[in-house]
Amino acid sequence: MKTTREQLLATLACGVVLAAAPWLLSDFLLALALSCLMYAALALSWAMFCGPTNYLSLATSAFFGLGAYVTAWSLGTLPYGAAVLAGGLAGSAFAALIGAGVLHLRGAYFAVITFGLGELALHSITYTEKTYFHTAGRIIGDPPENAVIYWTVLALALAAAATAILVRSSRLGTALRGIGSDEERAQTLGVATRRVKVLAFSASAFFPGALGAAMAVRWTYIEPLSVFNPFIGFQTVLIAMLGGAQTLLGPIVSAVFFTLVSEFLRLRFPYVFLILLGLLLIVLILYLPGGLASLLQRRFWRAGAR
Amino acid sequence: MPGMTRSKALLAALLAVLAWPAAAQDKPITIGYAIARTGPWAPGAQVTQEPNYIMWAEQVNAAGGLAVGGGKKRKVELVGVDDRSTMETVVRTYEKLMTSDKVDLILPPWGTGANFAVMPLAQKHGYPMLSPTATGRKLVGMKNPYFFALLQQPDRMMDALAEFMVARKVRTAAVIHVDELFGLEQFTALEASMNAKGIRILEVKSYPLGVKDLSPVLKAMAAKSPDAFIALSHPPDTFLSTGTAKAIGFNPALFYAAVGTAFPVYRDKMTPATVEGVMGLGTWNPKTSPAAKAYFDAHVARWKKEPDRWASAHAWAGLQILQKAVEKAGLDRKKIRDYIASAEHDTVIGKIRFKGSENVSTPGVVSQWQSGEFEVVWPPDRATSPALHPKPRWN
Amino acid sequence: MGFWLELAASGLITGGIYAVVAIGLNLQYGLMRIMNISHGEFLMLGAYLTWLAHTTFGVNPFALMPLVALALFALGLVVYRLCFQRIARTAPAVEVIEARSLLVGFGLMFLVQNAVYLAWGADLRGYSYLVEPVEIAGARFQANRLAVFGFAVAASLALLALLRWTMLGKAVRAMMQSPAGAQLVGIDTRTLHPVVFGAGLALAGVAGGLLSMVYEISPSMGEPYTVTALIVITLGGLGSALGSLLGGFILGLVEAFGMHFTSPSLKMVLSYGVLVAVLLARPKGLFSR
Questions:
Q1: Nearest Cα to A257, choosing from A292, A213, A299?
Q2: Nearest by CB to A113, which of C86, C111, C279?
Q3: CA C237, chain centre distance (Å)
Q4: Which chains are within 8 Å of C by 3+ CB pairs?
Q5: What is the DSSP string of B211-259?
Q6: CA proximity to C42, closest of C16, C2, C74
């Protein structure tokens, strides 16, 4: 699969096949598929920005939680689809706002700051809700059907994949890779690095925002502590890096693999599954440093990813 | 040849018919649940809820099983999974239990949030839930016919506290509460009760979960010399408030901390001398009734640790109700639901009757640590000991 | 005036605890770029070991600190050898070491936390030690908090002194400044790396042991401290041990005064606000070189 066109068509084809799931799978398997798609979308959108630029962003939890709250606030007045879009836009807006202030940091500094954003958002929302609305959480009254939620998340995953494909082969993608390898050099070559970074960071934040908005309806009751869960951010980074953040297929395969393996371990070994998961993770990173993508590349085609 | 085949078929059918009741007899009743074994909900869930689930199933099986519909006894098989204190995992697990595994019955997860998430599923698939660790007006206000909250609502518990304060002529109070649904609802209820009874709130401060130092807050409150200090707190802040108050020499006549005071570890970590006189949310102790003592002893024998004096007994009561329901109504879940909703139940914490989702029988209770036991001190007709008021000074 | 002193003292005491937790992580990151996100789990182990030894044998928790330090140092050597050494050897670039050690850290986090859940259950545990109030200049403090503060500051200063004035310390600082240069002058990085890693875990364990005297313990108590440690070392500057000490105090003071003037609910907002502000002005932290 070399050309952009072929990749986009392949994505579409997968989408058509996966859309049949609500008629073929049980509620539980559908929920599992939902989880796979969600993490695939999160990992793809994370890798879209952080892959080429080598930034370590832990802001996914912040965008996700924000999106969930957009649904909590607006689902009565807006239809589900609109709430999901609004969640995505909220994520992008928040990313653009903070991006301007933090994207000059690197490495651990950037990671810590982005982690803090989730905490910041959590406590700000808690304070606002408590002081101005005298409430601590919100109830989602009329959630849509499971199938609708699934198709929404599927659509988001396909959009994330399509965006990732398009960005990779565009000038934006080249600019990002340039920034990742040598930012100063990119600047001397005429790249408006600050603008490029904020744009890409903001665009990639649309997906966690939209996903948070989409998934929140499954939980009936939304409160800051449960939707601003830092674990979502950790797991996204884990999955993307395990799969290979510079590749397209890596995050997707890794998301499916990780979700299915964790669920299998959780159900099969109810008391020790986290120990097994931890061991598995350590072994994978130590002995498969290129990520799962390197396994694929060795097996199926030569390293020809652009 | 046709004749031989027909006899073989008849023989097979005969064997099947003979074997069938035996197979049905051995099939256990599956009861599924997701509970927090790891994550932030785990400390509460592993003290109050899961130990009771497991102990109940063991006791039932030791007696031969549950008499389904009053008839043949069938053993109980628990299917319990870790929900990792994550909402999505809770939802997904119950979807599996109810639709794929098609378990006979379910038991609820821990905490108000997780119960909110399971309620729509319970209604959709028709599984009644008796919940011992979920509370709040919002929950009851969902009017879910398959959901039953065993804990007393915040207004009951706070009313009981306010009544006690009136009886002991407490006029002023300083209140802190945690920034979270529980803290907020309890405070709203407390404020309403105290205003109605003319008790003045001198100061209110709220704080986030995970706060590590409350000394400036408590010092400011101590300076106002309130008759009562009330912390609507979770276990970590309960421990923190108690230690801090003792350290700064804050000795109000009434010291109340909501959640955590009922846990045995509170007495064990802070020492019985320190907790002497501290009040909190409670409902029972081994002296409440012979049935309560039997439950307490069984728990200690099985788990080598005491149950807590608040919701552990509610968890046990819920299991007792479920057992009776299965004995009366069999495994028809709609019938079980109707039975739970309409009957008056005899449980380890007394009689329980539901109005909608709310337990309207168990009154609000105030308990107080005295000589190493969390005594029930209010209302007077349920008290296991008279109240110590004022609280003995720490220093 | 007394009230402000008390407020400042509260902030400094909390800050001292933050500092000792952060210094261990700073050693590992500053020297080896190992982002040990499981740092807090070893703090938790130190807390459990102290609690176990104290409640079983009745030994004074302070006397247990050297034992806890030794135990976690040894554990650190093993963990480094099994988990991180390979990354340091095979990674092509420093960012890669950071990224991979982060992921290994996650694995360790799951492993250690769950092992403790299995061993001692999820219930809260605790004991009380030195809870009597102590009066200094008219202000009252819990004796154990003061003791923890004293111990934390002493440990931090001892470490700073070690780094500044001993040969070992100079070698470590040389390695932090320039790994290649250090090797050129004959410093044995291969031995020093596991030793420093072990020292980092030992500090975490001691911090945990000290904390167990004041707060209740549970298997998930470590994570918030990892987060705080990361904030402190970012604030103070990565690789600067003095920065961690001062950064811890600053954070403690900001929280104490901030909570008083605004509301305890805004504690986290303030902490992060300060961090963002500092990093805007000085992107490498307050005391970085």
A1: A292
A2: C279
A3: 14
A4: A, B
A5: ----HHHHHHHHTT--SEEEEE--HHHHHHHHHHHHHHT---SEEEE-S
A6: C74
In a domain, A95, yes or no: yes
Q: What is the pLDDT of residue A116?
A: 82
Q: Between β-strands A221-222 and A138-139, what pairing exists: parallel, antiparallel or unpaired?
A: antiparallel
Nearest CB partner across the interface for A271, out of C112, C118, C283: C118
- Please name the residues between 84 and 123 in chain B that touch chain A, using a CB distance below 8 Å: 84, 86-89, 91-92, 95-96, 98-100, 112-113, 116-117, 119-120
Residues sharing a CB contact under 8 Å with residue B336, sequence separation 6 or more, in sequence order: B105, B128, B322, B325, B326, B329, B330
| Domain containing residue A218 | 4-243
Pairwise CA distance, residues A129 & A223, whole Å: 10
pLDDT given for residue C132 in this prediction:
80
Domain boundaries, chain B: 25-152+288-359, 154-287+365-378
pLDDT for A306 beyond 50: no
pLDDT by residue (tens digit) across B283-319? 999 999 999 999 999 999 999 999 999 999 999 999 9
Per the prediction, chain B carries an average pLDDT of 92
Q: Is residue A48 part of a domain?
A: yes
Q: How many CB atoms lie within 10 A of CB B31?
A: 24
Chains that touch B (3 or more CB pairs under 8 A): A, C
CA B289 to chain centre: 18
**Gap between the Cα atoms of A203 and A217, Å rounded:** 24
- Whether B344 shows a pLDDT value over 90: the answer reads yes
* Among candidate residues B133, B229, B139, the one with its CA nearest the CA of residue B177: B229
Query: Distance between CA atoms of B384 and A86, rounded to whole angstroms?
Result: 56
Residue A31: closest CA among A301, A215, A291: A215
The answer to the question of residue A105 being in a domain is: yes
Task: Mention the CATH class of domain B154-287+365-378.
Answer: alpha beta
Decide which of B144 and C183 is more confident. B144
pTM: 0.91
Please check whether residue A127 is in contact with residue C269, taking contact to mean a CB–CB distance below 8 angstroms. Answer: yes
- Res B274: pLDDT: 93
E strand intervals along B124-241: 129-131, 147-149, 172-178, 200-207, 228-232
pLDDT at B2: 52
Measured CA to CA, the distance from residue B342 to residue B150 in angstroms comes to 15
Range with the poorest average pLDDT among B3-17, B74-88, C155-169:
B3-17
CATH for the stretch B25-152+288-359: 3.40.50.2300
Rounded Cα distance, B118 and B132, in Å: 14
pLDDT for the residue A200: 95
- Which of the four pLDDT bands, split at 50, 70 and 90, describes residue A80? very high
The structural domain count of chain A equals 1
pLDDT digit string, tens, across residues C213-240: 988 999 999 988 888 888 898 888 887 8
Element housing B367 (H / E): strand B366-370
Tell me the pLDDT band of B13, cut-offs 50, 70 and 90: low
Give the tens place of pLDDT for each residue, A104-145. Answer: 888 778 888 888 888 888 888 988 888 888 888 899 988 999
**Could you tell me the domains of chain C?**
2-281 (1.10.3470)
Helix (H, G, I), strand (E, B) or coil at A43: helix
pLDDT at B291: 96
Q: Nearest C-alpha of chain C: how many angstroms from A253? A: 17
Nearest residue of chain C to residue A234 (CA atoms): C106
Chain A residue with Cα closest to C89: A286
Q: Which residues of B touch A141 (CB under 8 A)?
A: none
In-domain check, residue A286: no
- Nearest alpha-carbon partner for A217 in A140, A145, A148: A140
Q: Residue with structure tokens 């879940």? A: B333
- Residue bearing tokens 């182990």: C45
